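Working notes for the structural subgroup meeting. M.R. asked for a predicted model of this chain before we commit to crystallization trials. I am recording the input and output together here so anyone reviewing the notebook later can reproduce the run.

Input as submitted:
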Amino acid sequence: MEAGCYGRNIVSSFSEFGALVGNRHKPKDKPTDTKVALGFLAPWLIGAVCLSLVPMLYSLAISFTKYNMIKAPRFVGLMNYRHMLADPRFVSSLKVTLTYVVISVPLQLIAALALAVALDRGMRGLAFYRSAFYLPSMLGGSVAVAVLWKMVFGSGGLFNALLNLFGAHTAMSWIANPDTANWTLIALHVWQFGSPMVIFLAGLRQIPRELYEAASVDGAGTWRRFTAITLPQLSPIIFFNLVMSVINSFQTFTQAYVVSGGTGGPSDSTLFYTLYLYQQGFASLRMGYASALAWIMVLIVAVLTGINFALSRFWVHYDD
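Returned structure, recorded in token form:
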């Protein structure tokens, strides 16, 4: 009896093993998850390769050539990169851009965070205010706003009219003055605080309210709660906005082009790096030199981003 049970168990085990082996060799009816994922990613991958990777590699190749888009490129080695060291306008454009980034990015983030904290306190019509404050981020980079900004800070613009109301009579064109022209563009960049503000507001909504209640019970004031709870909890969001703002600031072009009329004046005070790159590539037809400028900018942005990531471990706090 027991022998029969053992025999049936052995036969059953062999049958199950045979079924598993047979199923292993059968083709699957459904495609694998990898194929499905690649299918969904295919449009993006094709666009990334054809519209980004290939042009970038081509740009890197012609940065070692002398190319005016009329004649065939002629290989010149590192001449374009060596020429930058003796190019005073390259140094000037780099100085103007770095000044713009160093001043405008912190001011924009401070304004965005302050407004996000104010909106987070709760008020009627929050959705309306959020949309209204986000609107400058959508319109600030347009040609129309740049033209309007040029009129506002002109000699007979709205800014001088406001100063006249307070007794500071002046007819100076803030756009045409080399000492103030870049500051008008910094003000325009700070005005576009809507995008980081919305991200800050979303981050503030994720901070547990129990932390603020416990701090209030311990006697912590408003400023103490902000520095001990809000800033540490929001540090990953601050870091994200900082990195993105730095990258976007280096790409500023439309405002400087419209305000200066494409010249970068007065006295190259608004000669942004991207504007100088445009002048060399499409105005002077020095496409090889312009490509070299573009890759130097990529290198600068990569170095600054790497520095931000290296320093982030000292002040960015994650859940772990």
